[in-house]
Design a protein that fits this description.
The structure is a single chain. The chain is mostly helical. About 75% of the residues lie in helices and about 5% in strands. Strands 1-2 form a two-stranded antiparallel ribbon. Helix 3 (about 90-105) packs antiparallel against helix 4 (about 115-140).
């Protein structure tokens, strides 16, 4: 059974992933939440469409800042050590953890806690954003190749 390992693509693809991943992830998140709210509360989506440019702008900026401070050191270490254990599931889990940790750090000390239901909903939303951005990022920035030696796997 052959094992596939990750390899970073050229810098152009990595820069493209930095630009596209947060925007695509926030767009998918906005679309999913808009459809969910439209089905549950039966209202028109015109308010959501009006707010989309602001959500896309600020969500993409926030995602880009997270990528610069948390993903860049990880990519530099990966380029140096060429970890064989790195795969799609691990990267998506890393994005999920970043999303939920970021939400919890933003909510620490906030006097407007509306109970655990609102906290769990916020964690799910931010986790979905983080996992989606990580999945899209790895799809653009990495390529897969067959492992050729034991050193590629470990």
């Amino acid at each position: 059974m052959s094992r596939r390992v990750f390899e970073l693509r050229s810098r152009m693809f990595v820069l493209l992933a930095y630009a596209v991943a947060p925007a695509a992830s926030i767009t998918l998140l906005w679309l999913g939440l808009s459809i969910y709210e439209g089905v549950v509360s039966r209202y028109t989506l015109s308010d959501d469409f009006a707010a989309f440019p602001q959500i896309l702008t600020f969500g993409s900026i926030a995602g880009l800042l997270v990528e610069l401070f948390l993903v860049t050191p990880f990519l530099l270490a990966f380029r140096r050590y060429r970890w064989g254990w790195l795969n799609t599931w691990w990267l998506t889990g890393y994005g999920l953890a970043i999303g939920e940790t970021g939400y919890l750090l933003l909510r620490v000390g906030d006097p407007r806690w509306f109970g655990w239901g609102a906290v769990l909903q916020g964690i799910l939303v931010c986790s979905f954003f983080g996992a989606g951005a990580a999945f899209i990022f790895q799809f653009i920035a990495f390529r897969r190749r067959a492992a050729t030696s034991v050193g590629d796997v470990f």
